[in-house]
Design brief:
The chain is of the alpha/beta class and 421 residues long. The chain folds into 4 domains: 109 residues, Rossmann fold (3-Layer(aba) Sandwich), CATH 3.40.50; 113 residues, Transcription Regulator spoIIAA (2-Layer Sandwich), CATH 3.30.750; 89 residues, 2-Layer Sandwich (Transcription Regulator spoIIAA), CATH 3.30.750.200; 56 residues, OB fold (Dihydrolipoamide Acetyltransferase, E2P), CATH 2.40.50. It contains 14 helices and 19 strands. The radius of gyration is 22 Å and the shape is globular. The chain starts with a helix and ends with a strand. Bound molecules: S-adenosyl-L-homocysteine (SAH). The site of S-adenosyl-L-homocysteine has 17 residues, from strand 13. S-adenosyl-L-homocysteine (SAH) binds next to strand 13.
Amino acid sequence: MNEYDSDRIKNAIDAEPTDDPKKADIIIVNTCAIRDKADQKAFSSLGKYKHIKANNPDAIVGIAGCVAQLYGDKLLKKIPHLDFVLGTRSIPKLPEIISKIERDKRRTVETSYDLEELFEVEPYHKEGKVTAFVSVQQGCNKRCTYCIVPQVRGDEVNRPLNDILRETTNLVNKGVREITFIGQTVNSWKHDGNKFGDLIRAAGDVEGLERIRFTTSYPRDITKRMIDAMKDVPQVCHHLHLPVQSGSNNVLSNMKRTYTREWYVDTILRLKDALPDITISTDIIIGFPGETDRDFQDTMSLMKEIEFESSYSFKFSPRPGTVAAEYAEEETVKADIASVRLSELQAFQKDITEKKNLSRVGQIEKVLVEGESRNDPDVLSGRTDHNRILNFNGAKDLVGKTVKVKVTEGLLNSLRGELII
Ligand code: SAH
């Protein structure tokens, strides 16, 4: 989501990107507020540009994204070298803001939610890139008690189908072969009587599009219509990121996740019934207020029952303005207890991920080649249908093509293989 917004920001100001902040005329720090750590990172990044502004007073320094939305004009007081604060729904207003600052030398805050052309600026696309995100939804209508997203991104707004298809088709015409639809609860997308399953079917008709992914799905919004579309549209990749957050019904209820553990497990069974080879990854929050040892054991038993392909796990971080930040002191799970639980869960997941990667050795996977691998230009890198990174030796002109690769090694974060055609 933030990567997509950063690329929209790049396009909005239509400027040449530079890796050297000393040479930049405009520096914009795009931020995330989901956990306290991300929030702190925003401030330390901004701090780095203080001396640049001191050496070059004409440079414009701005903050964008969720931290900008959360603190608004307080940021101007706190950070003297900051020129503007740009909220999460204000990217289309960026050119106007920059020219105003250049003209009037006045610091600006723009965090209103009243913009109608919410999806207007499409993201910068790097030539030759074969995968791309397309936003289908902004904001969120769920009210998970730990989550700051509705506060900083507003209520759910769904993008019209034709807009989504136009952006998708444009990208495919530029050489993109894989699109990932993004939204906070992407599968709750609906517009003009169409539901998410209909969006998948429509995307399946875009000529030249080879792969369709989407993230992040909200468990309660997985419907038969969606599963049927996933089954019927051959471009849909057989991997789903489906955050469960906890395996304890007590905790799930306190989080207001609107489903039970049993319902979640049953949903996975329904998905596997339709798509037997589907892989599932998840997010887990450890140490939610009131989480007992028993609750944590319930989460561990769910991890064992499902054996997720991979998982992201986080220690609960109280966020300003959320219900869970107001829980009584005695509900707080002590930091050392949360750390022990997190380590236990992560060690377990590591073993499962390794085991799953090893089990793929000998199999032939279809890989969309995305580019050279990060560490070695002779090695090509792509992802399998199941979203595993697979590296193999091959010629550069395979980038953008879908090839067959035999897996020879299963590592913790990736697979290695040999090209077989
Ligand atoms: N709706 C978005 C939210 C992204 S946040 C999406 O699902 O993509 C990604 C993950 O961060 C969440 O699934 C949750 O596990 C975690 N998270 C959110 N708020 C948190 C908090 N206050 N403390 C710790 N982890 C949190």
